[in-house]
UniProtKB/TrEMBL annotation:
This is DUF1538 domain-containing protein. It comes from Acetomicrobium hydrogeniformans ATCC BAA-1850. The chain crosses the membrane at residues 16-32, 44-62, 82-102, 122-141, 147-165, 209-230. InterPro entries: UmpAB. Pfam families: DUF1538. The keyword Transmembrane helix applies. Keywords: Membrane, Transmembrane, Transmembrane helix. It comes from the Bacteria.
Length: 233
């Protein structure tokens, strides 16, 4: 039964990757009418992508997700709620530093800006913002604050910061927010938030446990906008 379940999961991964590869190949051959170079390398790369993604997702579901859920459930044993918020910030910050999509974005920004925006500076700025957003999300759960109130204030802050931020940093901030929603960060932080919401009294996990991804993304956006203002000053 376990082998059958693993095979079904592998087929699901294949169905996710293969159609995209086929569409790109057909677009190149039929629409653009251009030959495909290094066909053997591309086929081998697609196979590696399918197997690699399957193994990675399986590993996340077997380790990071249940571990994050366990951490969230046990956070309540910390005596001080502000310590819980601080722990959430540290987890969010460290998790963002290893996010592959963010590393790729930061290196692209450094290359295009000819080193004016170092990739380490951008990476740490986004990580700080993500951590702050994670802390705000946990604070919202602990004190049962309506999501609408927090998101409204944060979006208002974003609009104000945009008025003073250089245009190039506005675009980078938008992409930085989406770059944090990768395969490493989101399973861990969602599991922590939902795990915490499940064990708190008078807290509905559906209304409080979810929404953490939006807050962390906005936090990352705000930190990059502030970085842009600081570089302008």
């Amino acid at each position: 039964m376990r082998i059958l379940a693993n095979f079904k999961d592998f087929l699901e991964t294949t169905r996710s990757v293969l159609p995209l590869a086929v569409i790109l190949i057909l677009f190149q051959l039929v629409i653009l009418k251009r030959p495909i170079k290094n066909v053997k390398d591309i086929i081998f790369g697609i196979l590696l992508c399918i197997f690699g993604l399957h193994i990675f997702l399986k590993g996340v579901l077997m380790s990071l997700h249940p571990l994050g859920d366990s951490v969230g459930e046990n956070l309540v044993f910390m005596s001080n709620k502000w310590l819980i918020v601080g722990a959430a910030f540290i987890i969010g910050y460290l998790g963002t530093l290893v996010e592959p999509a963010l590393k790729t974005l930061a290196l692209e920004v450094e290359e295009v800006s000819i080193g004016a925006i170092p990739h380490k500076t951008l990476t740490h700025a986004v990580a700080v913002g993500f951590g702050v957003g994670m802390g705000i999300g946990i604070y919202k759960i602990l004190f049962d604050i309506p999501y609408a109130k927090i998101i409204t204030l944060l979006l208002l802050l974003v609009l104000i910061l945009i008025l003073f931020t250089p245009d190039e940093f506005i675009s980078i901030a938008m992409d930085s927010a989406s770059a944090t929603t990768g395969p490493v960060n989101i399973p861990i932080n969602m599991a922590i938030a939902i795990g915490l919401a499940k064990v708190l009294e008078n807290v509905d996990p559906l209304t409080s446990g979810f929404g953490i991804v939006g807050l962390t993304s906005i936090g990352a956006m705000i930190s990059v906008l502030i970085l842009g203002i600081l570089t302008k000053i």
